[in-house]
Amino acid sequence: MRFENPFCLDGETALITGGGTGIRFGIASCMVKDGARVDAGGIPGMVDREQGSILFISSMAAYMGVPRIIAYSAAKSAYFGMVSTLSAELAVKSVRVNAIAPGWIYSEMTQKALDNDPERKARVFSRIQMGRMGQPEDIGWAAVYLCSPAAAYITGVTLPVDGGAVVGF
User: Half-sphere exposure (CA, 13 Å, Cβ side) for 48?
Assistant: First the structure.
């Protein structure tokens, strides 16, 4: 473990699928800024090297009922089981498995969905304790943390990054 900067990803490789826009682009940007090489080919050597971090992107919709997105909520809820099971299988090889559950993050898709439905937008903002949507980089820096040596003892976790929406009133 690098103690001088445990958040540093120098020399690490990150595989990010769908990293061209939105949240995944934010993650890719933050990983690059922190020294990682972002790649489109994948990281099976982790088990052989007995070192690595797998990070899934879930959603706060896995924690709460959000109307009109049942298929999305079901798919994102499945990450809880995948993270737990893969963590149990891969921890013995020092490969950590975690997920991030983003809340409402500013993107073109989110803006279109909310700007066309003022009632839904008001309901969304009433849930967010911090009173604002997040930025893709908010997810990116959480991803950097979970993949860095600073999180060396964290596995099997789904971290909400949602401005307090999951616990909001």
Answer: 3
Does 22 map to a domain? yes
Residue 100 sits in which domain range?
13-161
Residue 141 lies in a domain: yes
Residue 168 lies in a domain: no
Domain count, the chain: 1
Return the exposure string of 17-27: e unless at least 16 CB atoms fall within 10 Å of the residue's CB, then b: eebeebbbbbb
Domain CATH number, residue 142: 3.40.50.720
Non-local CB neighbours of 160 within 8 Å, separated by 6+ positions: 60, 63, 100, 101, 103, 166
Q: Of 63, 72, 145, 153, which one is the catalytic site residue?
A: 72
State both tokens at 32.
């690059």
Q: What is the pLDDT of residues 125-146, one digit of tens each?
A: 999 999 999 999 999 999 999 9
79: annotated active-site residue? no
- Interval 31-52: pLDDT, tens: 888 888 876 444 766 777 788 8
Q: Specify the pTM.
A: 0.81
